[in-house]
Design brief:
This protein is of the alpha+beta class. Helices cover 43% and strands 17% of the residues. α7 packs across α23.
Length: 641
Amino acid sequence: MCGIAGIISLTNASPPPESLIVKMTDRISHRGPDGEGFLFSEHYPEVWVARLKEERPHAIINQRVFRRPVLIGHRRLSILDLSPLAGQPMRSYDDTVWITFNGEIYNYLPLRKELEALGYAFRTDHSDTEVILHAYQAWGKEAVQRLRGMFAFAIYDSRKDLLWIVRDRAGIKPMYYTIHEGQFYFASELKAILENPAIPRKINERGLYDYLTFQRVPPPETLFEGIYKMPAGTELSISGGVFEGFKPYWDVFDGVEPFKGTEAEMVEALDALMLESVNLRRQSDVPYGVYLSGGLDSSTLVAYLSGLIKDPVKTFSVGYAENESHTSYKNEFPFSRKVAEQFKCNAFEIEVTQQQYIDFSPAMTDFSDEPNPDPVAASLYFVSKLAKDNGVTVCLGGEGSDELFCGYIEWRYQAEFDRVVRNLGPAKGLLKPFLQLPLVQKRRPFYNKWYERLENSNHMFWGGAFAMEEGEKRGLLSDSFLKRLGGYNSWDALESWYQQFMDRARLPDILLDRLDKMAMAAAVEGRVPFLDHHVIRFAMGLPTSYKIRGQEEKYILKKTMESRLSKDIIYRGKIGFSSPIHEWIQQQLGVFAREKIMKFNEQTQVFDSQALSLMLSNADGIGIWRLLNIALWWEKFIENE
């Protein structure tokens, strides 16, 4: 796990300042506090490079002759092969191919044996970075199909004058890029690109409109106009100084075959696959542990890991101070403690206060790059810091299980609602007056919203990534803002890639982005066994009836875990990783939030002031949190800069 950055000049462009790559990697030093490295092309003064070596004697610094100006930087979080030889940017034996890499390749050992049999010699003892480097030399761009893991890497092949950048299949590792004044910039975090003060910091208004709908700006856009993020499972190339754009190399349905075995065979297959996935993610030369909530997913990881190692599993759990007064969310410590006791874990806990949330919010905005719609992002930082403070650098998390095995109860409700309404055919028009009855509106207000979505021929189900209806947004936003948007509609913008949104947007750009940014803020690597692409392929081939059986979500996963976990953990009601944001918004956090949001709107006039005041007075915790994060983002990245 690391932070990477680079700049390459496109055709006939002048080189950027040599100091810029140092500033870019310094800006994301939290991602890699254990080491740094730089690669400079011969277009930069040798005397400057020599001085940098004196100033940073422990850094890996190289300068080579390339056809065009190239700057590559790396910040290292040492996890696998801790020796200096495994530092980056790393070069091939003939000095022609260079790599900067963020992530982990879990099948690097068999790949290394295969490459050694082909005649490739290795400098390092067991670096997965060097495996990627030689895999590219052996198989070219097809090498990515052989990689099993999480990764974002950039390879510069000086023989071909080719820069090749790849983001992993599920989008676990981030990658941002832009083109400015003939230079192509890339980095693990968007803020590194902004170290060039000449790059405009302008709000992407369509992106803001989409954020209000989907809680994230769908890729490749970001909330910064002109700065982009690579979608999950894509690669991009710059060949001969020409940007060739990005293209997908993987689809969530690649290699998927319907599972036709019995339920017992299905359980056996899933059990073996999950055991293998967890085992692969033990590969580390530093201590590792598990984020444990006491829910099915995190408890599953503890169960598998405890069977693989002799020492007690280290677990890390987060809750909230004064939780007895909260009604919207109760700490899950009783459940996490039960799991920790069952497996004799070395368990650590932390209780976060409302004031800590307030104090951390500016830093959270900085670490996140874009507004973070999920209040538990801050909680994830605090529990990651708890792990780091107790000597752990790698933590396994349960992200992806709900998406693969249908774990959200509202998804079942939405699917059932969609089926019922569509089966009504022409008679569905009779349903609308019923849904608008006061009693129905009081008990099931979301039914009318769902019906409106279907009435407008929009997809009813968007993978849990949906926040506000088009009508809600247009009532909240100012007339001037809407006029600038014209007839733009978030649904229309995504209709052509609805399935890709379902498969690739919610996970990488909400849940996985949250995990990456908050864990890395504490210099911790988050690993997600459920999102091994072999597990994804298996889950995509399961019949829906094995994901939802009657009133039971995640049916097949629960059946699989019956031999490893107690049933009261497996079948307890789903709570979900959350926070008492509803109570806090009515207290100090709400005062803080309203002040920031009103200040933002006074400066930008994005929202209709009357509609905004009404929304803020209604104390909708999640809704106000989303707006707060827009305001904090504006303050950090636009106003203050």
